[in-house]
Every structure is written in C-alpha cells, then in structure tokens.
Amino acid sequence: AIRLMENAGWLKIDCYLDEAKVADYDAVILPGGCWNPDFLRADKDAQNFTREMHAAGKPTCGICHGPWVMVSAKMLKGKKATAVWNIQIDLENAGATVIDEPCVVDSNLITARFPYDLPRMIDALAKQLVAA
Asked: Fewest CB within a 10 Å sphere: which of 4, 58, 79, 83?
C-alpha cells in the first residue's frame, strides 16, 4: 500500500500562475513530493515565476523534489543547493554545488531535503523575510 500518494485535500488558490505577479508575493515555496514538483517543472509559468522571484531577491524555497522546478528554470548554475537524495544528481547536472545538509541557503535561494527538514527551511525563510 502507498499512503503517501493519497489526496490530502484541496487548497483554495488566489490566482493562476499565468496571472501571478512577483510584486504581489514575498516568497515562493516549491512543494515536495514527486507529483507536484514533476508537474510544476514542466510548466513554463511555474519556471518563469520561480526565476523572477529569485531575480527579484525574494526568498525562493524548494524542499524534497521541489528543486526540480529550479533545475527546469535553469537557475542553479553556480549555486549551492540540496534536495532529496535521488534528485541531487539532477541539481549537480544543472550546475549546482550539492551539499547534503538539511537546509542550504545561497543568498535568497533556500533548499531542503526532506519533510523533517521543513522547520529548518521555514526558519531560514523567516530570517530572510524579517530582514527584508
């Protein structure tokens, strides 16, 4: 049995990615799991929004498989990052220096490996938001 693939419910959204404006958001968090990041990394609007958030100096976070979106957005070259172990090679192939630690911060790029690393990622995000 696979429980991790059960639908956890639905969240109300405030707008679609093709309508989202970077100026309206303080940060972006790319979700973990396999299905959501796999869908998002193929979405040009998700790639553009993620790239634009990072370029604007806003905290750009990815956890678990979430950094896949950063790979597809071609924004990891020369950056330090981490992710779940089985996609660390993807980050490396995208030009990142992979550091196998719970949370890696490279300027406003924040990445974490697993759900139990989420508190560290949120702490790093909060520090950047407070400093802004």
From this structure: 4
Distance CA 104, CA 117 (A): 11
Decide: helix, strand or coil at residue 81. Answer: strand
Cα–Cα nearest to 90, from 103, 109, 76: 76
CA neighbours within 13 Å on the CB side: how many for 94? 22
What is the distance between the alpha carbons of residues 109 and 96, in angstroms, rounded to a whole number?
Answer: 12
As a whole number of Å, the end-to-end CA separation of the chain is 45
Over the stretch 27-59, which tens digit does the pLDDT of each residue have? 999 999 888 899 999 999 999 999 999 999 999
Q: How far is CA 61 from the centre of its chain?
A: 4
Half-sphere exposure of 53 (CA within 13 A, CB side): 27
| 16/95 Cα distance (integer angstroms) | 30
64 is catalytic: yes
Catalytic pick among 15, 34, 61, 64: 64
